[in-house]
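Entry for the shared binder. Reason: the reviewer on the internal report wants the predicted structure included alongside the sequence.
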Amino acid sequence: MSLKIRRLAVVGVGIASVGLFLSAADDPKKPAVKGVVQNAAVPKAPVDGAAALAKPFGKTAPEGKMKLKDILAVIEDQTGLIVRVDQAALRNLLTLTAGEAEADEVVRQRISAISDTSVALPRQVDRIPMRDVLTDALSATAERPWTYQIRGSQLVILPAYLVPGQPGQSLIYPSLNPDEPPPEPFLPQGFRDSQIYGLTVRLTMQQQPLAEVLTELRKQTGANIMLDPRCETQLKEKKPLLDVALADVRLFDALRVVADMAGLKMVYAGNVYYITTVANAKSFEPGSAYEPPPKKAPAATPPCAPAPTPAQPVAPKT
């Protein structure tokens, strides 16, 4: 059947939904069904980023090398994820290490330089999972390593987490131990605190279990948020349903509040936000329930020794 004229029509159901469809002038009219949008676009299902990145890369590198931006383009096309660079994280890093004026000037140049990084790839790279190709490619960037996070339907490229202190040191929470200086860090104080506090979040949920709230915070931030299985008994007994309304709140503080609403405690452990019982939190991370160390009693002053008796002068012999 030849189509003579095509026209674009817009139909709506209520206020919230609008559908687009194409109809032909020669097509017979069909009875309209109340409340149904014919030929409406079907919304795409959300992408499972972790599962998508587990699939093979699917492309070869004829010369054994590809630029990072080309690798990201292949991954974006293969997975349906939206790939972007976290410019705020990069600007924050540059501000803390070089100053705000320089950060504003070089952030775009730095992103461009990173994107143009040439990455050596194995001959059969098409058979390697995309996550491995991406990890190797980001580790090859100049100056410092980069990493990625999956935030919902986004694949976000950002500076990798840096260990803030010597191995085995207890990392006290920022501002919770004002009387005692923290261990000497590898990183500037501002950058260390920025890594701990995490991204700014916005969240509004009503009458939702803790697990659902944590899932939403993971989607927004890509952070490592874990719920201790030992909390299950407590959550099943009390079944707390949370009303959460957060705006412009750093992840660290949001998790502390949300965990407390459920009768639990959040402790921070090297780029992991761990929701656990109050009792376990005290033993797991002393810094999460900081108590000033007991003051040492001053050393006892030894009793004063008697003054020595002055020596008697010896009379000269005659």
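Summary line for the report: The first strand starts at residue 6 and ends at 13.
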